[in-house]
Amino acid sequence: MAHVVAVLDGKDLARDSMTCQMKYRTRRAETRRDRWMMGGRWHVDVLVIPASVKQAVPSLARAQAYLLPACSLSYLASALKSNIGMAQSAQPESVDERLKGRLNMPKPVPAFLPTVGSPLTVDKQAYDEIQQAPRVLVDEFTLPIRSGKAWEAPAGSIIRISTPDGPQVGDLNLWNRHNPRERFWASRTRQLHASHLGTYDRLWSSLPYMRPLATIVHDSLAWYGADQHGARVHDLLGTRCDPYIKAVLTSGAQYDFHCHSNLVRAVAEFGLAERDVHDVINLFQATGLDDEGRYFMNPCPAQRGDNIELLAEQDLLLALSAYFSPRASVARVVNVSLG
Ligand SMILES: [Zn+2]
Where's the DUF1989 domain (predicted)? Predict the structure, then answer.
C-alpha cells in the first residue's frame, strides 16, 4: 500500500512563517479569545474498508436514487397566482396586530426530520460497523499550518482528519472526483441536518445532484454539544476566511494565506480554479449566533489527537486548509512543524 507523506512547498512556508514570527512577535496572545486562533497541523488518513462491509452501506448503492424529478412549472405558476390573489384581497394589518401574531406560537418543528426510509435516516448500526471495521491505510499526509492540500478518496474509504498539535480549525471542500460541478452544498446540508454537524450527518451535494458526498461516522468532539453561549463545533454557519473581505474591512491589508487562498492553490493541481472553491464546513470550529443573530466564534476545543471521520459515499476530491491568523501569537507558530 502506498504510504505518502506530502509536504507542501515547505521551503516557502518556512520562510513565510519566519516572516510572520518576526512581524507578530510582539502580539503574544494574552486573552482566552485568542485560543481559537491557535494553529496546528492537520493530519489526514484515507482508509479503505472491506468490500463486504462496504456492500452493507445502503446509501452507496442508492446514491443515484436521490436525483429528483424536475419541478412542474405549471404547478408553480398556479401556486404563485393563488398567493398573489390572497395578498391582494387581504387588508394589511397594523404592526401591533402582526406582532400579536407572533405570540403563543407552538414550539417549531424542524423542517426536515429523518423519517423511516428517508435518505436523511442513516442506518446507524451499519455505519457503526463500518467505523469499527478493520482498516488499511492507503494515503496519509500532514498538512502544515498556513497551507492547503487537495487529495482524492475513493467511494467507501474513510477520511480521518485529526489535530496532532492541538487546537486547529480547518476549512473543508468536497467534490465528486469525476465532476467538479457536483460539490458540497453547505447551506442545504445545514437545512437538512443542523447548523453544526456530527456523527451520522451527511454532507450533501449541489443541485441537480443532491446526493450524499460523505457521511460523518466518528467525531471525538461529540461531547462538546452546545456550550454556555450556544456555540457548537463543526460549523456550517460561517464560511472560509478570504483576502477579499479582509481588504474590505482593513483597507490595504496584504495577507494571502486565508483558507480561501489556501484552497484555491490546493485545487490547482487537479485542474480546478478559484470559482470551484465553495462554502466550507469549518471543522472543529466552535461557533454560534448571539442574541441578535450575529455570528461569533468561541475557542476551538480540539486537543492533540482529536479527530473526525468521514465515509466517502462517492469518489471524492477533497481540499483542506489549515487555518492561520496573522493575529496568532508567535508561540503558536513555532510549535508547528513545517514538514
Ligand atoms: Zn480560515
Answer: 142-317
Task: Note whether 1 and 140 are same-domain residues.
Answer: no
Comparing CA positions, the residue from 216, 229, 214, 217 lying closest to residue 287 is 229
Q: Does 9 fall in a domain?
A: yes
DSSP string, 122-184: --HHHHHHHHHS--EEEEEEEEPTTEEEEEEE-TTEEEEEE-TTS---EEEEEEETTEEEEEB
Distance 191 CA to ligand 1 centre (A): 23
323 vs 282: CA distance, rounded Å: 10
Question: Is the whole model's pTM more than 0.85, yes or no?
Answer: no
Distance 323 CA to ligand 1 centre (A): 5
Do residues 55 and 134 share a domain? no
Question: Tens of pLDDT along 217-272?
Answer: 999 999 999 999 999 999 999 999 888 887 788 766 677 788 999 999 999 999 99
Q: Label residue 246 exposed, middle or buried (CB < 10 Å: 0-12, 13-18, 19+).
A: middle
Domain count, the chain: 2
Distance CA 30, CA 33 (A): 9
- Compute the distance from residue 76 Cα to the ligand 1 centre, in Å: 40
Are residues 51 and 189 both part of a single domain?
no
Q: Which residue range is the domain that position 54 belongs to?
A: 1-19+42-64
